[in-house]
Design a protein that fits this description.
mainly beta, globular, two-stranded antiparallel ribbon, two-stranded antiparallel sheet, single chain
Length: about 80
């Protein structure tokens, strides 16, 4: 069950300090999406949490400078 109405995009997110990417949803228009863009998680209410990545409903862009290419180049 996808908790978003269109537009949304399936993306690979590399969390700061992580070694592997996370496949998830990004709430954004495709024309604004690019590699290295910073995003934040939108979480389910804590009472609905389980022990899964499903606790994150989706990611959305934030207004921070892009991650440097060297910080994610090994994951593409």
């Amino acid at each position: 069950n996808i908790p978003l109405e269109l537009p949304y995009i399936a993306v690979q997110v590399l969390l700061d300090g992580a070694d592997t990417v996370l496949m998830h949803l990004l709430k954004a228009k495709l024309e604004y999406v690019h590699m290295g863009m910073r995003v934040k998680a939108t979480w389910r209410p804590p009472a609905a949490w389980s022990s899964s990545v499903g606790n994150i409903l989706y990611f959305e862009p934030i207004a921070e400078p892009d991650a440097p290419y060297d910080s994610y180049k090994e994951h593409i």
